[in-house]
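Hi there, hope your week has been kind to you so far. Thanks so much in advance, here it is:
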Amino acid sequence: MSQTPTHALPSYLNPEDLGPWGNYLQQVDRVTPYLGSLSRWVETLKRPKRSLIVDVPIELDNGTIAHFEGYRVQHNVSRGPGKGGVRFHQDVTLSEVMALAAWMSVKNAAVNLPYGGAKGGIRVDPRKLSASELERMTRRYTSEIGVIIGPSKDIPAPDVNTNAQTMAWMMDTYSMNEGATATGVVTGKPIALGGSLGRVEATGRGVFVVACEAARDRNIDVAGARVVVQGFGNVGGTAARLFHEAGAKVIAAQDHTGTVHNPAGLDVHKLLSHVSQTGGVGGFSGGQALDKNEFWTLETEFLIPAALESQITVDNAAKVRAKIVVEGANGPTTPEADDILAENGVYVVPDVLANAGGVTVSYFEWVQDFSSFFWSEEEINQRLERLMREAYASVAQVSREHKVTLRTAAFIVACTRILQARQVRGLYP
């Protein structure tokens, strides 16, 4: 008689400190009771398909050799090739990249894109490297992970501290190694290399679109509503601008340089200009400096965490006075904090739904590269808004049916799609 093996954690993780991966596992456990007969496949979700750790040696400008640790994790590819960004950050860990790859699996399935989930990163502080050093590091990393990426296998994209130029270096390196130009190997590229119009603003635009849908469900008028935003880059900055243009008041903004607050509303266009010139919101003259912890206590209709993960925790969740939290970042709310927000009646639009605009337009870019036929920015924005509204509507419907949070509903929708694909494909050999 065969026995079902007990669940074991990957041997390369510390069971005492699972980090972000532990948060993801808790989310899977919460959704398992809603998966019915598919729950027999749930271990699939708890184990990345492939985790690659690479050494990235480069010669620095001063002639010395430096080594950096890089990662590429493919969590699940049952529904299509892996898809997910690459981040350069001094705090990157394998646990973080695994969790981000898993959340990409969920995100792509929640929006019904034909992708699996993947993620990559290098543990490095890019501010300490010159432009030429960054290029050499990016190219070496691309060569090291080249064995598992490709237009039909795994398609990287920009993430924290990476951009269109990073993707251009990655595409060129991969193409040189393949002996042929492969524009579809990455998305988020410059327009000149097959990038898509509307990609830079896509994530922030998606955040705004689902925020408006949530506001309608909660009987909140966006015009005149108060908004606070953490992170003022492509995601937070774009969302703030769209809220501002819709008549909302962005009353506070926070990033690594500080927190600025103006109850009457910040001039978002001037703040964006200030951020472009100085690198952050700190020192902006159009508002008052605020203690970073007080940021979370501001009374507001919308709170947009659009920075890094684990920002809303058990330490500050009870202080949140927002009516709606729209997660522009990946994993900004811990599971324990999620429970506190739910108990306090805070309506949370989860990351796997709220920030899916970026990967949606990345999908459009990938499709355009394959066909060598490109759409206008107006077409792209219309397609993006339609897909985001449809995804929100399907998740909200499941939320009402099962009387669960939007996060649990999004996981029900996504995990069902992933495991259905796993089941009908079967096991090989």
Remarks:
- The mean pLDDT is 94.
